[in-house]
């Protein structure tokens, strides 16, 4: 059994069906980086199915602390951006990052993401302190 984002138990078969459905969409994708048998990083692109907004995707990326600094985030982003260009459905790619995460911001800027907005007190840190969140965007013709 597996727990989804709201804590509902689902079976492995249901999770497999969900992932297979996601894989068939032209505006959603998952990328995994492995070191041996261990997942070192993940990148997820997700977009709505409604016609008027299906060209807008949200990017989520995470690299395990043990593997940060080895270029895994760069490889994941390269692969994802290549996929976006090949498929052609996504025209606006958005992501958010805590303003204090300078390494991640540098990575996104290296790939020509533009800082679109800084959301003051957009999140809380692990100690409950309010922190700013940067909103980045990348456009595709």
TrEMBL record:
N-acetyltransferase domain sequence ranges: 1-141
Pfam families: Acetyltransf_1
Molecular function GO labels: acyltransferase activity, transferring groups other than amino-acyl groups
CDD domains per the UniProt record, alphabetical: NAT_SF
Coiled coil: none
InterPro entries: Acyl_CoA_acyltransferase (IPR016181), GNAT_dom (IPR000182), MshD_Acetyltransferase (IPR050276)
Name used for this protein in its record: N-acetyltransferase domain-containing protein
Record organism: Lactococcus lactis subsp. hordniae
Organismal lineage: Bacteria, Bacillati, Bacillota, Bacilli, Lactobacillales
